[in-house]
Structure formats: structure tokens, C-alpha cells
Sequence to fold (432 residues):
Amino acid sequence: MRTETLRDFRVPVTEPAAPYAASTGMPDEAPVYGEYPAYYEDGAQAAAVPPQPGYAPQPPAPPAPPAPHHDPRQDPRHDPRPDPRQEEHPHARGQDHPHPHAHADAEPAHTMSQAGPDEDELDGYTPTYRDLPVIGSGALGGPGDTVQVQYVPQDVAGPGPLYVVGDVHGYLDELLTELRAQGLIDSEGRWSAGNARLWFLGDFTDRGPDGIGVIDLVMRLSAEAAAAGGYCKALMGNHELLLIGAKRFGDTPVVSGAGTATFQAAWLLNGGQRTDMERLQDVHLQWMSRLDAAVLEEGHLLLHSDTTAYLDYGDSIEDVNDTIHELLNRGDVDITWDLFRKFTKRFAFRDEETGPQAVRELLDTYGGSRVVHGHSPIPYLLGEVGTEDGDESRGPEAVDGPHVYADGLAIAMDGGVTMAGKLLVVRLPLSD
Fold:
């Protein structure tokens, strides 16, 4: 069963130049928030669909004189086929946090800035610029990717309701909770929303404990939703590019705007989890490599990053997606790094004067009346992290829904789940 975003080309999968290092590559003076060290980020084969139930045996041949004691199971034309099942596979669990103390051999050659991102310096932002500290939370023990697949085809007419999901970053339990709350999955984690449409805005892994479990869930829900007359699809985020680069290129040096860096070091500095790398398979890499970067749904331009860098790749959504797929398919470390660097840019819509203009440039080029994005946590867009206002809570825990800004033209969907905020699953259009 194919979807509109599945494309007919093969993605080469290569091994990294060297195994990923045990060191985090983090500077000794990096502050620690709870259990997590502060990470750095730039300004920071599609899953096979099992056969459907309801297989019909071949029609019988013209009747022949019956034989005594005939057993139809011996008839070669009789081909009963069992209901398809997805094999369950246990996997190692547990959250693997990089050690908060650095080793010099894992740090990129250039020096990391210890100051937070200043709006005046955003043009020089690189993927190893310190940003977005992670505030710790307890380890999660979610059901992972072992929920059995069950297909329930339905006859439905027309598209169902549209939902979007912000950045997940490995927080599988929170994702399952929010999907259940919206009626998109049942108590066993199976798709239960019929012909509903669900879009993930990217960033499935890193920082949280079970990124591969999140990817496995999204891949499975994609098959189940399609069988039920709806769909579950996903966009490519900068952390998908980061994980692909870390696996393919390891510690191969790349030239960045601030000197020499590696995907391996950037992945660790951005919260890469070793348990995710250990469980990463070719099917995950190929699925991530085929994700589109942009899509238009009912007047909503869905993107991962709040940046105008998408304009560098084409004047239409189709051109953007085709160009990014082609560049990623080359398997070139510098080209992949440049893609990652541009996808990490952020805050293009935040300024009250220039932000609306940046959003309109994207909408005028690609269509739609609003941009919906993840990537930049809402507390950072609001400038409320680390501030106090009497007894009013203004930290990540205060986020309870999407943030509409830039003259109402942009909707931010990253509630800051990595900072003890909320993982957002929202139905569009918004009621405002």
C-alpha cells in the first residue's frame, strides 16, 4: 500500500567511518539541568505493509464427480492464508544519557560559544552553537514498538479530520498518551481514528529515551491508518538528518561555518542516545531518508523548521522535496551537513517587524494561509524560559497548546517536551 510521499528510488546506506565515540564531546563547563547536560543545537525502505486480511481463495474449477472421503485441505487449489501478524521483537530499554563531562578528543575543532543565541547573531548560527538546554525528567518505560499490528479496513468517503504532532524527541510514553487523548489510537496503541489524517512535523529521536520506538510506532500507524481509510505521515526534521549523518559518516570531518566538525560530535552534543544508535536499522534510515520536507494541507503549509531556508531548494513544494531527496541520496558528507545546518536555523518568524514578512514569503511561494512548524520550543519563542513574574508559572510547564504568532500567520507546535513541557497533538484548523 503506497502513499503520496513514497518515492521510487533507493537510498544507499553506508557505514560510518568509525564507531561512534563513547565520549560526549561536551565542554567541561557545560551546565547540568537535572539529569541532562545542556546540549547544543544550531539556531542550534519504507516499512513493508503486511498483506491485508480478507484474502479470498481462488475460485474452484468446474465440478467433478466427488471422491469418497475427499479432504478439501488436500486440494492444491485450496490456499487458505492466515491473518497477517507483525512479529514482535523485544529490544533493550533504558535511557542512555551522555556523560556531562567532556573529553577533548570528541569535541569539534572549533570552540563552542557558551552564550545563548542572540537575535543579532542568528545569521552566524551553526549546528554546534549552544542552545535549548534539556531539563531532566524521569526515565520512561513505554510499551515501545512491540504492540501487535491489527488492520481494520473500512469503507469511508472523503478525508477525515486533520491532526498535527509537534517534536517528539524520543518521548514515546507522552506521545502514546496524547494520541489516546485525541482518540487517534486505542488502549493497545493501535490506530482507531478511521479516515483521520495525522502529520508528524519531524524530530523523532534524540534527548528522550526511546527515539527508535517512536519511529517504529509512526511506521506502524502509517500502515494501520492507510488500511482504515486515513493516513499517518511525517516530515523530515533536522534530527532525522543528524541521525542519518551520524550513522553514515561518523567522525568524518566536515567544513562548517565555524571550522571543522563531525556528525558524530554534533549528534552527541544534540542529545543523541546510544540505545537509539544500537537499535537503528537500515529500514529506519531508508524511511527517514524518504520523508518530505514540506506539504500543503487544507491551507496549512506544514514544515519542521521556522526558517526561510526552504526557499533555497525550489519554488514549489514538489521541487523542494525532490531536491532535498536528491541531495541526501548522494551520500556526500558535506552536502548532508549543509542540509542539516540549514534545517537547524530558527526564529525567522519571531521578530514583530520582519517575522510576518518572512512567513508571507513562504506562503506566497508555496501556497497556504498559515505556516505550521515545530523545531523551536514555544517557551523560547515567547522568551519566557528562566523568567519569573510573581507567582505565575511562565516556564515550559505553562505551555498547554500551540502558539499563534507573526500576525496570526504562524503556528508553533513544539511545546518543549524535552524541557518538562507538553507534547502537542492538535486538530487543525484551530478554533481561533
